[in-house]
Design a protein that fits this description.
Blueprint lengths: L4 H36 L6 H8 L3 H8 L2 H19 L9 H17 L1 H12 L5 H11 L1 H12 L9 H20 L5 H19 L2 H10 L2 H15 L1
Length: 237
C-alpha cells in the first residue's frame, strides 16, 4: 500500500464531518416534508414548496431522493420509525400481543395528526398513486403482523395454502379501508380502534390451523379481547 496510516485518516474525518451535515439537512428536509404532507396532502405537495421551506435547492432534493415520490416515501418511513422509537416498540415472541399494542400506538398517532392519516389514505387508494409509496405504506402497516406471520409459519401453525404476501396485502387493504371509513366520518375514533383490531383477529383466525388457533387464542388476554366483545354487543343492540 502507498502512503501511511496518517494519510488515510484525513479523508475519513472529512467524510464524517460531511455526513453529519448531510444527516442534519436530511432530517430538516423530512421534517418539513411531513409538515407539508399534513397541510396539503400528497396532491398539494410540490418539490418547489418543500425546497423553499427546507431552504435547499430543488436539485438537492432530486439528488437525495430522486423525485417527489421519493421524498414522500422517505418522510412516511421516517415518521413511522420515529413513532416506533418513541413508544418503545421492540417486539419479542410471542408477537400477537405486540401486534395489538402496535395498533394502539398507531391509533394514538392517527388521532394526534388526523390530516396526516387522511393524506395517507388518499395516497393509498389513488388510481395514480406511485407504487413505491403504496409499498412503503403497506410495509409500515404490516411490520408487526409480518413478524407474527413468520413466527406462525415457522411453528407450523398455518394452513399449507396460505400465501404470506397475499395475507399481508389483504390485511393492509382492510386496515386502510377502515381508516378511510373513519376519514369520511363513517366511524368514530373508538370504533376505528376496535375495527382495526378485529380486522387482524378475523383474518388471522382464517389462516391458522387448529393448533395455531388454540395457541393464538391463549395469547390474547382478556384485557385485549373483552373490550372488543362488549363494544360489539353495544353496536349490535
Amino acid at each position: 500500500m502507498s502512503g501511511g496510516d496518517g494519510d488515510a485518516l484525513i479523508p475519513v474525518r472529512r467524510k464524517t464531518y460531511a455526513s453529519a451535515q448531510i444527516n442534519e439537512r436530511r432530517a430538516r428536509i423530512l421534517s418539513e416534508a411531513l409538515a407539508l404532507i399534513i397541510e396539503t396532502g400528497s396532491t398539494g405537495f410540490t418539490v418547489q414548496e418543500l425546497s423553499r421551506r427546507a431552504d435547499v435547492a430543488p436539485r438537492t432534493l432530486y439528488y437525495a431522493f430522486g423525485d417527489k415520490e421519493g421524498v414522500i416515501e422517505s418522510a412516511v418511513i421516517e415518521h413511522f420509525s420515529a413513532l416506533t422509537r418513541r413508544n418503545g416498540l421492540a417486539p419479542t415472541p410471542p408477537y400477537a400481543p405486540w401486534v395489538m399494542k402496535g395498533m394502539d400506538v398507531t391509533l394514538g398517532e392517527i388521532l394526534r395528526v388526523p390530516n396526516y392519516a387522511r393524506a395517507m389514505v388518499e395516497v393509498y387508494f389513488s388510481p395514480s398513486a406511485n407504487s413505491r409509496i403504496v409499498r412503503a405504506l403497506r410495509k409500515i402497516s404490516n411490520g408487526l403482523p409480518a413478524l407474527w406471520l413468520r413466527a406462525e409459519f415457522e411453528a407450523g401453525n398455518l394452513w399449507p395454502w396460505v400465501g404470506a404476501e397475499m395475507f399481508l396485502e389483504q390485511l393492509s387493504d382492510l386496515q386502510y379501508a377502515t381508516l378511510h371509513a373513519w376519514a369520511v366520518g363513517e366511524l368514530g375514533d373508538a370504533e376505528l380502534g376496535r375495527r382495526r383490531r378485529l380486522n387482524f383477529l378475523t383474518l388471522a383466525q382464517g389462516i391458522l390451523n387448529a393448533s395455531g388457533r388454540e395457541a393464538f387464542e391463549s395469547l390474547l388476554s382478556a384485557d385485549l379481547v373483552a373490550p372488543l366483545v362488549v363494544a360489539g354487543r353495544q353496536s349490535a343492540g
